[in-house]
Structure formats: C-alpha cells, structure tokens
Amino acid sequence: MLNIFFRTAAVTGVIVALAGCATTSPIERPELRADERWNVPLTAGAKAPDEQWWQAFGSEQLDQLIGQAFAGSPNLAVTAERVFQAEQQVRVAGSSLFPSLNLSGSTGERTTDDGGSENRSESTSASLNVSYELDLWGQLAAARDEAEAGYRATVFEYDSARLSLASSVATTWFRLMALDEQLRVARENLAIAERTEDIVDARYRNGAASRAELLRQQTEVLNQRAGLEPITLEYRQTRSALAVLVGVSPLGFEADTGTHSLMDLTLPAVDAGIPSDLLTRRPDLAIAEAQLQAADANLAQARAAWLPSVSLGLNAGASTANLASLANPVETLGWSITLAQNLFDGGTRDAQTAISESRRRALVEDYRGAILAALQETDDALDRLQTSQRREALQRTVSERAERTLELTDLRYRAGSDELLTLLDAQRTLFQTRDQLVQLRLARLQATVDLYKAIGGGWQQKDE
Fold this sequence. Notes:
Layout: H1 2-19, H2 60-72, H3 74-95, E1 100-114, E2 117-134, H4 139-205, H5 211-246, H6 278-281, H7 283-304, E3 309-320, E4 330-340, H8 348-414, H9 420-454
Antiparallel strand pairs: 1-2, 2-3, 3-4
C-alpha cells in the first residue's frame, strides 16, 4: 500500500512540474484603424438601418418576396444545415474534456477433447473501464475553442447569406419594376408614333405629305414595335431569376408589380455611420474574425502537442468460472496513470506548428483585406447613390423639356410649319429621356441597396 502511495505521489509531482512548462500563450488580435469619415459627405437627416431594412422602400410585394426567399431558398437552407453541423462538431470537440466510460460483458462455453473424454468449461465476465485525459496544457480546450469559433463563423455565414439574398431579391425586384416601367414608356411612345402615322396618312391622302414621309413614319412605328421585344424578353428572364431567388419554379411564376410604379417607391436616406463601425456591423467581417480565432486555437493545439499527455485509467471487473458461481465472482480493481511524451517524430510537430502559424498569418491578411474591401464598398455605394441622385434630378428636368418640345413640334407639324423629321426627332428624344429617367431611378434604388448591404443592413451580432 505504501508502495502505491509513493508511486502516485511521484507521478503527481511530475505532472505538476510539467504544468509549469506550458508555453501556449494567448495571441493578440490585430488592430486595424480606419478614418472617422467617408470621402463622400453623408445626407442630412439619414437614419440608421433596421434589421428589416428593405421595408424602408415601402413595397409590400418586396417584403413578401424576401420573406418567401428566406423560407424557400435552397442555398439558404444549405447554409442553415452547415450551422447545425458546426454545432454538432462543438459537441464532439467538447466531449474530449470529459471521462470516457465503457461497459463490456461476455459469457461463453469451451469444450476440449482429452483422450476421448470431453472437458467442458464455462466463463462469464463483466468489466467497467473509465479513462480520462488530463488537459494540463489546454490542448483539448483549444480543440473545443476551435470548434466553437468555427460554429460562430458558420452562424455569421448564414447571416451574410441572408443579407446577400435579401439584397439580390431587392435589386432583381427593382429591375423587374424598371422593365415594367420601360415597357409602359415604350408602349406610350408607340402610341404617339401610331397617332403621328394617322396624321401623316391623312396629310398624304390630302396631298399635304409625300409618300416618303408616310413610309418614314410607318418605319418608325415598326421600329417601335420591334423595340418592345427585347424589353419583354428581359422582363420574362428577370421574372424567372426572381422566382429562383425566392425558391419556387419559374414555370408559371407571376410577380405582380402592383399599382405602384418604380417612381412611387420610397427612397430612404441611409446613415452609413462612421467607418470604424463597419468592424461590428458586417457579418463577413465577423466571419473573418471568427476564422482568426479558430486559427489561434489551432495554433495553441499545435504548440501543446510538444508537451506530454497524461491519462488516468480505472478498471473494475468480475468473472466466474460458471453460471452457478455468479454469487461468488472473482472481482478485480485496477487503476493507472499514463505519461506519454513523443521524443522524435521526424519534424512532424515542427511542420504542423509552422503550418498553423502560416495559416494564422494568412487569415490576418484576409481579415485586413476584408476590412479594406468593406470600406471601399461602402464609400463607392455612397458615391454612386449621390451621383445617381444628382443625375436623376437633372434628367427629370430634361424629360420635362423634351415633353414640352414634342407638344410644340406636334402643333407646328400639324400646322405645316415643321417637317416630319423634326417631329420624329422630338419623339425619339422624349422616349430616350423617359427611358433614361427610369434607368437612373433604378440606379439610385440599386445604389441604396448596395449601401444597405455594404454597412451590414442593420445586422447585429447576437450573443451566443
């Protein structure tokens, strides 16, 4: 008994002494600072985005489509499954910190032939084995930390996928509304051309217009009709793309743009905050940070692999020679402390540590690059938004002037003061200015969506 005490004390002393040799130290996060203002001045009275930022556009159809996309998108469902898998991986990694218990039992019979006589023997046994690895150097805890960081990264990937999906649905929906508006403008322009054709035809029959003028106007009408086809095709294809985004079949899918036109949508003023806020507002930056935390934990494991492993074992069992002696089994009880240290591995641990350090350095640069890209995306979105706003205001004035010019030219043509070519030029100019106005409104809406996405769309990191 005294022998056992001394052996136990000796091993315990070695373990305590080695615990002081642990070299896994915490690794500091990189500090990256950004300027406190954007290159483009912010709009006065702008509001910070809500988590459901798309509702600020005032489109019930858009709100319904994004809700449908969240519920039915296959890509989002795949990302959700990855979150579940990562959560289970945390359980797997965490289980190593607890003892392992194994229960086994057996019974059997053996017959031997000894010179013509049979000898039969029976045996029954049961045992309980308990094993536990002491995590003196934090290697097992680091493995759990790596799994937890990986889980957080997948949660942020899911949040990022939701943000990207909502942005894609919004921009596709706005594009569909713009095409619907362009079709309306094109049909109005066609109606103007057809009315002009009737006027030219009447003037031709009265001898006030030439055959060439009539053919020219008929050609213009045909061109206007032909111009409807590519817009209609793009409308159908955009509608199909929207169906896929929301997770339904494009066959038979209808997207009612409602009674509101593109020009009726609300254009929210978005507060982009200050550049340093992006570090906590964008899920993709949270992904990069979580991946860096996982790399830290992986490096801690690689460093801890240089230190000895210590395991405890306990075994209890009972056995009998036959079933009749179950009441008086032979009982056994044993324990063990195992200390293992790799003395030579051909440089494997050196290489694994170097790989972990290199991966961490690469992730630091990825993190820094993601921050720089986020700053650029936000500043560019602000620039596009303000530029498109100014261009739309100017284009609206141009469109009003073109409409007035056509009215006057039409009156002058009817009175015989202007030629048909002048009238045709006025018609084309009006059509082009109206079409350009629609495209600029679309650009402004898309720039607003880009800005929402660039600043994280009201996303906030939730406590796990």
